[in-house]
Design a protein that fits this description.
Blueprint: H1 3-9, H2 15-18, H3 26-35, E1 43-48, E2 53-58, E3 61-69, E4 87-95, E5 103-106, E6 109-114, E7 130-139, E8 158-161, E9 177-179, H4 181-190, E10 196-200
Parallel strand pairs: 1-10, 8-9
Antiparallel strand pairs: 1-2, 2-3, 3-9, 4-7, 4-10, 5-6, 5-7, 7-8
Length: 203
């Protein structure tokens, strides 16, 4: 079976299937524990692509919520699609310790440049700047977000800061998950490498 067929034949996790609602997250945690026993579920990041929110779940409770942007092109895993992948990932690498707020990264390297942060609604910088912090995601589900033409890590899917803060709350990225710069520092300081990250949509 080709990689293209594999990705379309994979069951796509929905928000309801994940049972990610306040006070009703036990189903998601049980599912992740069962499928990925090598990873802790004491702390899990959930990306609610439908509501453009990122939830931090700690010891079974939602402890933090932040506004985000997923991909303007929608949800999907195919290489070159500029879409945000669904499903379970791990936080493979954290990049940017101590970098000043607004620092621009290119190919995960600190450029030393500080971006002008645009906060006006809908304001565009004309660049797809990755700012402040990077959390690089690695897919855990072969055929959905791992391997061949659907590999999140090889597609360089990150959680990162953006200089287009005024566009947050609606799909705006080229595949990554964008956050406010102060928010991405806050999340970065709270999570560890290998933290599970689950990306889902509500239908």
């Amino acid at each position: 079976m080709s990689a293209d067929n594999q990705v379309y034949n994979q069951p796509v996790p929905t928000f309801e299937q994940a049972q990610v609602q306040d006070g009703n997250i036990a189903g998601l945690l049980r599912d992740l524990q069962g499928r990925f026993p090598n990873y802790s579920t004491e702390q899990v990041v959930v990306i609610d692509a439908s509501n453009q929110k990122l939830l931090l779940i700690e010891k079974g409770q939602v402890t933090h919520r932040w506004v985000i942007s997923t991909a303007e092109a929608g949800l999907g895993s195919r290489k070159g699609s500029n879409q945000t992948p669904l499903g379970a990932h791990r936080l493979a690498q954290k990049i940017g310790d101590g970098a000043p707020l607004g620092t621009v990264f290119k190919a995960r390297q600190n450029t030393g440049r500080i971006a002008k942060i645009l906060t006006a609604p809908g304001a565009r910088s004309g660049e797809d700047n990755v700012t402040t912090r990077i959390m690089w995601l690695d897919g855990l589900e072969p055929g959905l977000n791992k391997g061949d033409m659907v590999d999140s890590y090889q597609r360089f899917i990150y959680i990162h800061g953006t200089d287009e803060e005024g566009r947050l709350g609606a799909p705006a990225s080229h595949g990554c998950i964008r956050m406010r710069n102060q928010d991405v520092i806050d999340l970065y300081d709270r999570v560890r490498e290998d933290t599970l990250v689950f990306i889902a949509e509500r239908r």
